[in-house]
C-alpha cells in the first residue's frame, strides 16, 4: 500500500472499536458519541459552534464569560433549539452572580456545569449537584485535583500552558504525568496544545477519559468568528502564540496566550509608560494596576466579532499551527478520531 492510499484509507474497524473503548468512560460521562469536549472560548463558543459540536458526536460547551443570567438563559435556549444532544455551560468562578448563573443552568436543564477561572466555592458545587447537574472543574495540580474531588467534582480537566487564553505555568505533558496516575475516582480530561488524534490517543492510553480542544475548532465553518480572525489562525504558527509579558513584578499581569500583533506590542509600551508614571509619582499604585489590567478590556470581542486582528486579542493555543483551513465541525471530529485509530492500527501492524 503506497503512502497516499494509506493516508486516505479508512481505519480498520478493530482500531475504531479500540478508540471507542478508550473513550467509553468520557463519552458516557458526557452522554456523547466521542469523549471530545469543546473548549469554552468567549465570543466563539456560542450556540452555533456548541450545537455543531454536540451534533457531530462531540460535547459542546457554551462560554458564559461575562454574560448576565438573562443573557445566558437566552443562549442556552437558542442552543437547545439547534441540538437535541447534551452540551454544557462554562461558568467563571469570579463572576459576581455565579450562584444565579448556576440556577439559570439548572432551570434550563443543563446537564453539565464547568467551573473555570479558579476554585469554585463549595456552595456553587452543591447547588449545581443538588440541581441535577454534573460538575466539571479545572485542576492545575495534583493536590488541588484531590481537593476538588473531595469537594464533589464529578470530573476534572487538566489544562497545560500550551492552551490559548488564560494559562497556568505547567505544560500538559507534565500535568498528565503528575495527575493521571493518581486520580481514578472521576474522569479526567486533558487540554492544552492538542490538535491531532495521535495526541488524543497517547493521553487516553495514559488514563485520560478524553480531551478538550478549543483552538482546533475556531476555524470551523459553523464558528461565527470573523473571517479576519480565522485567517490569523490559519496563518499562525505555534511560535506565534505567546503568553503576555510582565515588565514589573510589582504590577502582575495574568498570563494570556495569544497570537502576537500590534496590540501585544502596544501593551508592552503601555506597561512601560504606566510604570514610568508611577515611579514619577504621577499615579498611585492601585490606579496604575487598573490601567494595566484595563488595557485589554473588550479586546477579544474586537478581534473575534469585529475582525480587528491588529488591535484586538487573538487568544490562541500553540496548536494554532495545526489549523490549516476552514472545515465543518463534523469533518474535524472525524479527522481526529480517524487519526487516533490509524495511529493505533499502525502500531499494531
TrEMBL record:
Lineage: superkingdom: Bacteria
Protein name per UniProt: NAD(P)H-dependent flavin oxidoreductase
Documented EC number(s): 1.13.12.-
Record-linked InterPro entries: NMO (IPR004136)
Gene Ontology MF: a single term: oxidoreductase activity
Pfam family, one: NMO
Assigned keywords, A-Z: Flavoprotein, FMN, Oxidoreductase
This protein's record includes keyword Oxidoreductase: yes
Catalytic EC class: oxidoreductase
Amino acid at each position: 500500500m503506497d503512502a497516499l492510499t494509506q493516508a486516505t484509507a479508512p481505519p480498520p474497524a478493530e482500531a475504531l472499536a479500540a478508540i471507542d473503548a478508550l473513550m467509553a468512560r468520557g463519552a458516557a460521562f458526557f452522554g456523547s458519541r466521542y469523549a471530545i469536549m469543546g473548549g469554552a472560548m468567549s465570543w466563539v463558543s456560542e450556540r452555533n459552534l456548541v450545537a455543531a459540536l454536540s451534533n457531530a458526536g462531540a460535547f459542546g460547551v457554551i462560554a458564559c464569560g461575562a454574560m448576565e443570567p438573562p443573557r445566558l438563559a437566552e443562549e442556552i435556549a437558542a442552543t437547545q433549539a439547534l441540538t437535541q444532544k447534551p452540551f454544557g455551560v462554562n461558568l467563571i468562578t469570579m463572576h459576581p452572580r455565579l450562584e444565579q448563573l448556576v440556577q439559570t443552568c439548572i432551570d434550563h436543564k443543563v446537564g453539565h456545569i464547568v467551573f473555570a477561572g479558579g476554585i469554585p466555592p463549595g456552595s456553587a458545587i452543591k447547588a449545581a449537584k443538588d440541581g441535577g447537574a454534573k460538575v466539571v472543574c479545572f485542576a492545575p495540580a495534583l493536590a488541588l485535583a484531590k481537593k476538588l474531588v473531595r469537594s464533589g467534582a464529578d470530573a476534572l480537566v487538566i489544562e497545560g500552558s500550551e492552551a490559548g487564553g488564560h494559562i497556568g505555568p505547567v505544560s500538559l505533558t507534565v500535568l498528565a504525568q503528575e495527575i493521571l496516575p493518581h486520580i481514578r475516582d472521576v474522569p479526567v480530561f486533558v487540554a492544552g496544545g492538542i490538535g491531532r488524534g495521535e495526541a488524543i490517543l497517547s493521553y487516553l492510553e495514559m488514563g485520560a477519559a478524553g480531551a478538550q480542544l478549543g483552538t482546533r475548532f475556531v476555524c470551523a465553518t459553523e464558528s461565527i468568528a470573523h473571517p479576519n480572525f480565522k485567517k490569523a489562525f490559519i496563518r499562525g504558527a505555534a511560535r506565534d502564540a505567546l503568553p503576555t509579558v510582565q515588565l514589573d513584578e510589582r504590577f502582575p499581569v495574568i498570563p494570556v496566550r495569544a497570537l502576537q500583533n500590534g496590540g501585544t506590542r502596544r501593551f508592552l509600551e503601555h506597561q512601560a509608560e504606566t510604570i514610568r508614571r508611577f515611579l514619577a509619582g504621577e499615579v498611585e499604585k492601585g490606579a496604575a494596576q487598573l490601567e494595566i489590567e484595563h488595557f485589554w478590556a473588550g479586546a477579544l470581542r474586537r478581534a473575534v466579532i469585529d475582525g480587528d486582528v491588529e488591535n484586538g486579542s487573538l487568544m490562541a493555543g500553540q496548536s494554532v499551527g495545526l489549523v490549516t483551513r476552514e472545515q465543518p465541525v463534523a469533518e474535524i471530529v472525524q479527522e481526529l478520531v480517524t487519526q487516533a485509530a490509524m495511529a493505533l492500527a499502525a502500531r499494531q501492524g
